[in-house]
Design goal:
By secondary structure, the chain is mainly α. Helix content is 70%, strand content 0%. 0% of the residues are buried.
């Protein structure tokens, strides 16, 4: 019978690697979600930005 020994530092490294992957995937999904949301909000933002006000000081 072969006894397996798992070094505690290897387990700690594995946990850190898994946690890093989960955090990276979460960050990528958040960025992707914000890009999608901003894509659909562009039309509304353009309508708001195209409002021009007359400035009486600069008109001749």
């Amino acid at each position: 019978m072969i006894l397996l020994y798992i070094d505690p530092s290897a387990v700690s490294y594995t946990i850190q690697a898994v946690a890093g992957i989960v955090i990276a995937i979460g960050a990528c999904l958040t960025i992707f979600r914000h890009k999608i949301a901003s894509f659909f909000k562009k039309d509304k933002d353009k309508e708001k930005k195209e409002i021009h006000f007359k400035n009486e000081d600069t008109e001749a």
